[in-house]
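Good morning C.,

I know you're traveling, so I'll keep this short. The sequence:
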Amino acid sequence: MPYFFVPILITNFTAKTLPILKTKKIVITGGPATGKTAIINHLESLKYPCYEEVIRKLTAAAQDAGDITVAHSNPIALVSDSGKFNTTLINLRVDDYLAAEQLNTDICFFDRGMPDVLAYMTYFNQAIGNDFTDICEKYKYDYMFILPPWKAIYTDDEERFETFEQATDIYHHLLDSYNRFGHNVIKVPFGTVEDRTQYILNSL
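The tokens, ready to paste straight into the viewer:
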């Protein structure tokens, strides 16, 4: 008896009922020089998808354009149009958030998140419009890890502008900003990059 191959048509109804993998979005933040970028780099080496900090690119672009001419001051406070700078910054982070929606993986990591923008604006006593708060209310992260100030590893460079005392103050503004939008903030203990990374992974 001959056999015939009958193709199976996947209807729209069938496709819609297939499970969709929701990627958990995880923020790692902290004040300057707390080891945040080292952890992100280590996570990338472990093949986890990560979205880099975008403010350094914006800072370099502003310096190249001559919009920042004073050394050792934060660009958010010095650019000629801080509103435009902050809007561009938070929109770039929204872009990363939306890009993560298309990933087919369990988790992804962000080097800073949208509430960071509001924390720095508060630190510099800049007005925060409803459009900024609306964005932070709309786009929520699944996990939020913060790195406390760590005097032993604090260094500055040509793109880092804060003293350790200022960095500590920024840390508290970050805590307040994330708590304001209902995030459960998890503090990462001091340790090696590998130990801190493993602590984050074990907490998920």
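Safe travels,
E.
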